[in-house]
Design brief:
With 210 residues, the protein is of the alpha/beta class. Helices cover 24% and strands 24% of the residues. It has helices spanning 5-14, 73-83, 99-106, 119-131, 160-168; strands spanning 38-40, 43-46, 58-60, 90-93, 112-116, 137-140, 153-157, 175-182, 193-200, 203-209.
Length: 210
Amino acid sequence: MYVDASGEAAFRHEFEPSASDPIEPDWEDRWREFHRPVRAGGLWIGPPWEEPPQGEPAVVVDPGRAFGTGAHPTTRACIELLAGLEPGSVLDAGCGSGVIAVAALRLGFGPVVALDSDPVAVEVACETARLNGVAIDARVADVLADELPPAHVLVANIELRVVEKLLERRPSVRFAVTSGYLAGEVPRSDGWNVAASLELDGWGAHVLTP
């Protein structure tokens, strides 16, 4: 609990014995130290209070209500693998904050459809797109039950079993970029072949083809 001097006195009066510790004057901004820029697929990815290097393609993402600051190894791995594919339309299944969707646009892919079952995530993905001056088609949808639009590339940075169930639906795509699972794990689904793989900091990612 954070209180001023008068609040501390009132707290001590009601809950003796008690103890308190002083806080640093800039405590409310210290959390920002944990969100540092990263690079993936030739892109600078960082929070809005950091200045992207001049002339370098950037994705700005505000860490907050939805998963995906760009720093997690699975996110970076997906972007790295995307960067090695021929650009085309993208279906981002389980888009979270929208960082991969926006990164795909920066890499020359498009149009991008971003799906998530969490309405807050879809809202945040739209905010991320606006922050970067781009447009994505973000929708609330269950990727294991609702209709999946066809795309050149499917991106699924979600839990392994969900990835496998998604692949079992046989979405109409040429490539699937998958992650969200540990190094050494591979999505197992009939009819899909591993075309490329990548490991980052103990996490795995793959490009699969039907």
